[in-house]
């Protein structure tokens, strides 16, 4: 594996690999790795069934929408090299593909920073597969395919868990026997690349808050919240897996563990039944019986849809309060990701439970998805776009140019940030679900 190349200018590929889809963003990097701007982005969906490539430029002009169903067996190892060739054909002639950065869901207890992929790092990532069996295998598979088919491309892994690694033990420890904690059954937290992006943006736009106590609500298909104090993650709602915390599109969020014992005894459910129930049949879909999509629920007159939205808002609000407690107070609340950035109704529903905390929304600002949606007298409530792909690109360049700021939390301002996830070609639909 090539571990010596440095990336100072060229094209950088960011990959977010799932079981049936691979999402990608291609960035231009120049000069000396200081500026990073998106060129185009897309996704290969339906892998294994009816593969299809779609892509758009940074200006959101479509550049591909085609069936790839005829390309062999339709597995990631077969299709990824085709995708790389397609990407290279669409790059400007003076912009060679120089490197790849990967979103990797789990860094475990040892990988706290973005890492250049070596055989040792790859081996460590494989040992973490049992901790995230639905996501980690796909991340590792993509890294291996690239290492074999394009050994000239240096690769960097960026972890969803890394931003949370400095949390105090009382936030990461479950109340279970110590030997189980020592065996790795602890709270890791996820969505770290999103929280890191927000923390860095706060430093650029609201330096007072960047050194304060902020609760960030990342509300999308996968949802979690994070308490960020002085730019560092203090506590978060997802724990050992991406199931803990608030209800999500199809995931339950936290529930009484006694339910699992009961389901196994009473309904003879096995591990696969429980996995299906908790990851794919619960959350907004389970409660509404209609959809996992917040837009559908908000547009429906079915009382079960309204119930699902109400439950979601209350659970999010309760976590805001809990995370404020973890920080000894709160100076601002930030909403981000698909629901957080675009749903005025959900933001209003959440904040209605938080008036006792000094939160009061300005109706017009909230309806307009403005950057500040609270009244002037309120504890500030912000809406910010997240951009995990940009964060991966930034880290990848920093690792490959041996720049230190990838290793020091949000202290460094985002250089060359091309804008928000919404403003560049990284459409909300880009994010692989965690
Ligand atoms: P994400 O996983 O960040 O892409 O977010 C996906 C979620 O955002 C889905 O539940 C969408 O229904 C939701 N979403 C996107 N746009 C809107 C909108 N305008 N109003 C309500 N929910 C939205």
UniProtKB/TrEMBL annotation:
Main location: cytoplasm
Any GO MF annotation of the entry: acetate kinase activity
Binding site for Mg(2+): 16, 388
Protein residues bound to substrate: 103
Domain of life, source organism: Bacteria
Gene behind this protein: ackA
UniProt function note: Catalyzes the formation of acetyl phosphate from acetate and ATP. Can also catalyze the reverse reaction.
SUPFAM superfamilies (UniProt xref): Actin-like ATPase domain
Requisite cofactors: Mg(2+); Mn(2+)
Protein name as it appears in the record: Acetate kinase
Location in the cell: Cytoplasm
Active-site feature positions: 160
Keyword vocabulary terms for this entry: ATP-binding, Cytoplasm, Kinase, Magnesium, Metal-binding, Nucleotide-binding, Transferase
HAMAP family registered for this protein in UniProt: Acetate_kinase
Subunit structure, interactors included: Homodimer.
Pathway in which the depicted protein is active: Metabolic intermediate biosynthesis; acetyl-CoA biosynthesis; acetyl-CoA from acetate: step 1/2
Alphabetical list of Pfam families matching this protein: Acetate_kinase
EC number: 2.7.2.1
